[in-house]
């Protein structure tokens, strides 16, 4: 596949997708989402890839859904095409995904970041849900994922007032995992990706699945799910290797089996 709106690179065991529509501040057009999904499909299917990093430009991670594309669409258009359903591909990725955010992450751009597992923000990052200023509401999950991540007070503030929050506030409220200087963003995200990719693959995938279960179920169900996955890992060779390596004071050699 040839890409026009994203750049796709493989850096060792890390797959890197860079959103690349600079003239539109990486607005998330139908084409961009299709290309992002194709890149994600490729990395998911590639056994050499253990983690994915998603990033944008210095100015914008993504300025949201493409406003020009949405203009003129009616209810029947978006209902028949199930507009926004394709965006959920990112949330369904099983390998860990790190978002590296610099500049604006607005509307659907903030929602894409919320679908990632870790969000590493540059000091320049600005997060916001300005959809109400367009007489829309967030449509790619923010009313749910943002509320579950940062609680009602901050979600209502962001959604109802459209206020942009800076990286420091985003970290304080739990929207981002870490804040780093802009110049260190890419290397930090790639290093985090490489660290995750070096883990035992089944353990990393099960950890992600178990944490995500917390967002989908009640506590008792989530705890039971976590316990079953934990127990399942006792069937892997990597678990024996990981424990043995610790006891023998040496690095582990995982086979992802
Ligand atoms: C289409 C966009 C765009 C967008 C920017 N552009 N955001 N085009 N869709 N979301 C275009 C502008 O029209 C302009 O094109 C060029 O990018 C540069 O934008 P400027 O505004 O001149 O840049 P700047 O002053 O740096 O401001 C950056 C910005 C601002 C703060 C990000 O562009 C902005 O507020 N954008 C809209 C943000 C927004 O409302 N997002 C929510 C969208 S709704 P020209 O041709 O004039 O150079 C949404 C719903 C999600 O996301 C629901 C799920 C689908």
From TrEMBL:
Keywords: Fatty acid metabolism, Lipid metabolism, Lyase. Belongs to the enoyl-CoA hydratase/isomerase family. This is enoyl-CoA hydratase. GO terms for biological process: fatty acid beta-oxidation. SUPFAM superfamilies: ClpP/crotonase. It comes from Prosthecomicrobium pneumaticum. Its EC number is 4.2.1.17. One of its GO terms (molecular function) is enoyl-CoA hydratase activity. Could possibly oxidize fatty acids using specific components. Pfam families: ECH_1 (PF00378). It catalyses: a (3S)-3-hydroxyacyl-CoA = a (2E)-enoyl-CoA + H2O; a 4-saturated-(3S)-3-hydroxyacyl-CoA = a (3E)-enoyl-CoA + H2O. CDD domains: crotonase-like. It comes from the Bacteria.
């Amino acid at each position: 596949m040839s890409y026009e709106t994203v750049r796709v690179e493989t850096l060792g065991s890390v797959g890197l997708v860079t959103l690349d529509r600079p003239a539109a501040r990486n607005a998330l057009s139908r084409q961009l989402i299709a290309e992002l999904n194709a890149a994600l499909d490729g990395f998911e299917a590639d056994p050499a890839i253990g983690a994915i990093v998603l990033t944008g430009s210095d100015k914008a991670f993504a300025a949201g859904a493409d406003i020009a594309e949405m203009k003129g669409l009616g209810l029947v258009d978006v209902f028949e095409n199930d507009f926004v359903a394709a965006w959920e591909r990112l949330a369904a990725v099983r390998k860990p995904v790190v978002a590296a955010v610099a500049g604006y992450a607005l509307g659907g751009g903030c929602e894409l970041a919320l679908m990632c597992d870790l969000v590493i923000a540059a000091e320049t990052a600005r997060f916001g849900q300005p959809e109400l200023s367009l007489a829309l509401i967030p449509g790619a999950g923010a009313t749910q994922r943002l509320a579950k991540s940062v609680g009602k007070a901050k979600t209502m503030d962001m959604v109802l007032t459209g206020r942009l929050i800076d990286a420091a506030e985003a970290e304080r409220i739990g929207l981002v995992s870490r804040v780093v200087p802009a110049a260190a963003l890419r290397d930090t995200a790639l290093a985090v990706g490489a660290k995750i990719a070096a883990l035992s693959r089944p353990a990393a995938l099960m950890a992600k699945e178990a944490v995500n279960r917390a967002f989908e179920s009640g506590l008792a169900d989530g705890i039971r799910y976590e316990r079953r996955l934990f127990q399942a890992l006792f069937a892997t060779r990597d678990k024996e290797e990981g424990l043995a390596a610790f006891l023998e004071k040496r690095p582990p050699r995982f086979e992802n089996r």
